[in-house]
Amino acid sequence: MTHDVVPRVEEHRGPITRMHLVEWCAAENDYYILHYDERHALRMGFQAPLIQGTYKFALLGQLIARCWPEARLDSVSIRYVRADSEGIVLTLSAEETACEEGAGGTRRILALTVTGEDASPSATGEATIVTPQT
Amino acid sequence: MMRSLKLRTYVRNSALWAGAVYPHICAIHGKGLARLRDCGSDPAGRRRMTGMTIESFARDLETRFGHKFVETIESGRVRDYLAALDATAPDADRPEPGTPVPPLFLLTLARQRRPHLAQSTGGGGVNAGDTFRFLAEARVGDRITVTCTVTEIVEKTGKRDMLRATVHFDYVNQHGTKIAERDNTLMRWATA
């Protein structure tokens, strides 16, 4: 059985500052220099330190957990299309694209996007969540 | 035939060799960087990108991922993870042992780069993508063994020559239960 899809959920985070990036370095235990050293970012061809892809990914994970609190995350993928520099506001979104009942509960497919300064997403992904039958 | 012969020679001489790639694919299979397959020689000989080679990239990956990581999910780390995402207050109580952790907390395991250590042999690099499949919950206090395998290195030619690697992660808890797997894609390029 197929259900109507829920509306798209969206939230804005930021501006994402250097402090967020350094705090995320500590949280994920990875101090990759690209995310806090301007000289290194310039050497790599970027104008400023970049927001970690994993930070955007983890923010999407929290968005899913908040909007579908009863669901279990079955799988999730993300593709980092473009780099986002520090100082911008991120727009995170999750949109249900499919929903079906199964033996284990209701399975939903979510399309995920992160958008930075440009109109086109800087990251896109997909998640599958399962809500157990009550 | 010639390519195969050269490959066997290179493999015998150095399991890490990957300086020449034709047709731009060098898949690395098995644990760590033990074997190379589908590699051949470029007509121009060993191909190198300025300041970086596939070999040096492979060596970087071996340094970062070429061993098992065994880590305990500590409550303070979970609290810091949530605080960094503004999902909890920095001074919130630490979650109790046995509390399920956010699935993507697994991103924080098997990571070890420090600011004061040399981080690569040169070039630029970014994370290009991630795929997770979750099989069971991870909880505060779990002891997780993470096994990483470099599954592929591919040379991408274009406006900017790049190398793309895929690293596979298996997460197993203290009961021997596989709780998740991850495929992480990394891009690397030479800088001037």
Automatic annotation (TrEMBL), chain A:
InterPro entries: HotDog_dom_sf
Protein name in UniProt: MaoC like domain-containing protein
